[in-house]
Amino acid sequence: MLTIEAYNPAWPRMYVAEANRLRDAFGVDALRIEHVGSTSVPGLSAKAVIDIQVSVRTLDPVGRYTALMESLGYLHVPQGDFTLVYPFYCRPAVWPSTHHVHLCVAGGEPEAQHLAFRDGLRREPALAAEYVVLKRRLAALHHGDTLESREAYSIAKSDFVEMVLARARLP
Prior knowledge:
- The protein is 44% helix and 15% strand.
- The radius of gyration is 15 Å and the shape is globular.
- By secondary structure, it is α+β, with helices and mostly antiparallel strands.
């Protein structure tokens, strides 16, 4: 079941603990590690999943980090062609996840977009509040008991995400 919880002040500490594990495992390959997603926005209600973005120099060859992520207890979740530019891993391997890691190339568009979305919600509390209303409505529509319903929940937020990104591009 997809559940949107009230903001938990422990989420930033959970991020720091996992970011330290990732930093130790990736070593110099991790150029940047960022807390992204709803749990990274102070005060925002969210699914209790810590989203982390790890920026690296290259993702080639495809899957080069899968064994490393598996050694940390993560499962690679293939997402078609998107996996080539933004591989996704979840922990634990069995749903519900507590942590998601997204890999990206430093300086690339996926990295910039995820950070711009987070920063837009951090800057505009009214926008963040609007996002919570949308997430609660979509969580009620998409139960989250299957991968397909969780993907449908994510896809249904796309228009809102695009609107936030468009605002971030304005001078």
